[in-house]
Amino acid sequence: MNPPANPPENAFTDLPDLALRAYGGAVVAASDESFAEKENLIRPGRPSFRPHTFGARGQVYDGWETRRRREPGHDWALVRLGVPGTVRGVVVDTAHFTGNHPACASVEAAAVDGYPAAGELRAAEWTEIVPRSPLRGDAEHVFEVADGRRYTHVRLNAFPDGGVARLRVHGEPRPDLSIHEGLSLDLAALENGGLVTACSDAFYSSPHNVVAPGLARHQAEGWETTRRRDGGNDWLVIRLAGAGIVKLAEIDTTNLVFNAPGWASLTGTGPDGETALLPRTRLLPDTRHRFRIEDGPAVTHVRVDIYPDGGLARVRLHGVLDR
């Protein structure tokens, strides 16, 4: 297994967006959404805009927009993270809001396990992770977060009112795995704490997609590399949810019809060193492949090699945590 000895640290925006709707995030409450719905804050993809498109509430915006406040205070939106974790940075995007964006914003975070209702969340203990900061219209505002604690919810505060297109909460997943005690689980899944920590190439799409929840709906929701011309092969490394024994591997090339890899192999590393989980094995395009893995030692990371290049929709590594 040969990832770089000391891979360069990525900017926090290379980490998964823990609030993303596709990962299970939800905007559970907002002070107001008179002009545009709060749910738009955590939608995947770049915000869209069609000028001179008016509805009953005025110009249609792909974002969250509140009315003009005529009383003291400020607007806010409560977001449940799809995957609890350590927040490394926040992006507040005011794309297409020009003249109707908030003057300032701040972000707070809280750790409330279980299934709290909106009223319970408002009474929770909140920690400011992004101080009140000025915003510009039609711009991405990037804020690094130094707080290393685990959080389950964030609150976006808009001063005093206005529109925000997207809220991105990038970080490292840290879910509560106690519910899986004695049960099997997907050790690679982002929602269980898996994370892609290195890859050879991410030209067309993010390697984090391979451990995302659900099935890829189209090619862009997987991981795809450039065409190699050097005789080598592409790869990625997945940090598992915890040290565990992999018993079943799923390598999914769904939607990759003419750009699937020809072959793939899996190599694990753990306290006992490297172990071959799956030898170089032929793959078919647009297919969910499942391979049983012979019992072996617990591993903490798995390297996925694809030959020579191409893309994968998902990688699932089902097994049990090592106590």
From TrEMBL:
The keyword Hydrolase applies. Keywords: Hydrolase, Purine metabolism. The keyword Hydrolase applies. Pathway: Nitrogen metabolism; (S)-allantoin degradation; (S)-ureidoglycolate from allantoate (aminidohydrolase route): step 1/1. Its EC number is 3.5.3.4. It comes from the Bacteria. It is an enzyme of class 3 (hydrolase). Residues 24-173, 193-320 form the Allantoicase domain. It catalyses: allantoate + H2O = (S)-ureidoglycolate + urea. Belongs to the allantoicase family. PANTHER family: ALLANTOICASE (PTHR12045), INACTIVE ALLANTOICASE-RELATED (PTHR12045:SF3). NCBIfam families: allantoicase. This is Probable allantoicase.
